[in-house]
Amino acid sequence: MQIEVYSTFNSVKDLSGKTAIVIDVLRATSVITTALSNGAERVIPVSSVDEALNLSRKFEGQVLLGGEREAVKIPGFDLGNSPLEYKNELVAGKTVIITTSNGTRAIKASESAEHVLIGCFLNASAVVEKALRFALSSETSCVALVCAGTLGEFSLDDAACAGLIVDSLVRNMERVNEIPELSDLAFACHELYLGHRSDLKTFISHAGHYKRLLDLGFEKDIDYCLQRDVLDCVPVYQKGCIQSAISEVLK
Ligand code: MLT
Questions:
Q1: What is the pLDDT of residue 247?
Q2: In a domain, 39, yes or no
Q3: What is the distance in A from the centroid of ligand 1 to the CA of 171?
Q4: Which element (helix H / strand E) includes 114?
C-alpha cells in the first residue's frame, strides 16, 4: 500500500483509484464530523458564498447555511465555522450547506478519488479503519491524505494530524507484515508527528491559523478540535454531498 500527503488544497493531483482523507483540523473537517455526529442528515460542501446562497434557494430555505470567511461567520448565514455551534438540537435531521476558505475547497479538489473520507483528530482512528478497508479492497492500494492548508500555504495543524494518520496506517499494515510505501511528504509528516506526539498542542500552537483563531477568541474551538478519537463518525463525500458512513452511503 502507498501513503501520500498533499500539503494544500491547490497541490492535489489526480487521485483516480485512490482513497482520499481530507484534513482541515482548524476547523472545517472537525465541524463536518461534529455536525454529522450530532445528527445532521447531510452536509453539502460548496466553494463560494454565492453557490451556498443559490443552493439554499433551491431548497427553499429548508437548510442551514454554515461556514466562514476569514474565520468569521458569513453575514446572513445561520452558523459560523465553530464546531461547538453544531449542536444536536440545531442540526439533527437537517441538511447543512457549508462553505469555508480552505476545507470545502480541499474536499472539492479530492473529487477524482475513488473514495473521499473526511478526517480530523476527533475521528482519526475511525477514519483510518474505514480508509484501510477501502484502500485494501481497491486496485490502486493508495491512501492520499489531502491537507487543506491555509490560503494555499502549508499548515502545521493539518500536517500533525496527517502524521498521526500515517502512523496509524503504518502500524495497522505492520500488524499484517506489510510495510507501506510513504511519499516524501508522508514520511516528513510521520516524523514530525513522532517527534511531537507527547505535546501536539504546543507544536500546533506555532501554526499561523492557530494564532489567528486565538486572537479571534476561538480557544474553545481549538481545544475541542485537538481531542483525539472522541467521535466514531466517518463522513463520506459522494456525489456532492457528505453523509456519515453509518448512513445510506455505504450500505
Ligand atoms: C477553512 O476551511 O479555511 C477553515 O476551516 C477556516 C476556519 O478555521 O474557520
A1: 38
A2: yes
A3: 30
A4: none
Q: Is the CB of 28 under 6 A from ligand 1?
A: yes
Asked, for residue 38, whether it belongs to a domain, the answer is yes
pLDDT of 246 = 55
Closest approach atom of ligand 1 to CA 209: 8
Domain hosting residue 11, numbered range? 2-26+109-246
Q: What is the distance between the alpha carbons of residues 190 and 174, in angstroms, rounded to a whole number?
A: 15
Is residue 231 domain-shared with residue 114, that is, in the same domain? yes
For residue 81, what is its C-alpha cell?
Answer: 465555522
Pocket flag, ligand 1, residue 105 (CB < 6 Å): no
Which atom of ligand 1 lies nearest, measured to the CA of 100? 2
Nearest Cα neighbor of 5 from 148, 134, 137 is 148
Low-confidence ranges of the chain (pLDDT < 50): 247-251
Domain end: 103, 131, 162, which one? 103
- Does residue 166 contact residue 145 with C-beta atoms inside 8 Å? yes
Do 97 and 119 belong to one domain? no
User: Are 146 and 232 found together in one domain?
Assistant: yes
Q: Do 74 and 49 meet the contact criterion of CB atoms below 8 Å apart?
A: yes
Tell me the CA–centroid distance for residue 89 and ligand 1, in Å: 23
Count CB atoms within 10 A of the CB of residue 161.
33
Q: Is residue 138 domain-shared with residue 14, that is, in the same domain?
A: yes
Give the C-alpha separation, 15 to 134, whole Å. Answer: 14
Question: Whose C-alpha lies nearest to ligand 1, atom 6?
Answer: 71
Distance 56 CA to ligand 1 centre (A): 21
Q: What pLDDT, on a 0 to 100 scale, did the predictor assign at position 138?
A: 92
Per-residue model confidence (pLDDT) at position 248? 39
Position 251 in a domain = no
Is 237 found in the same domain as 113?
yes
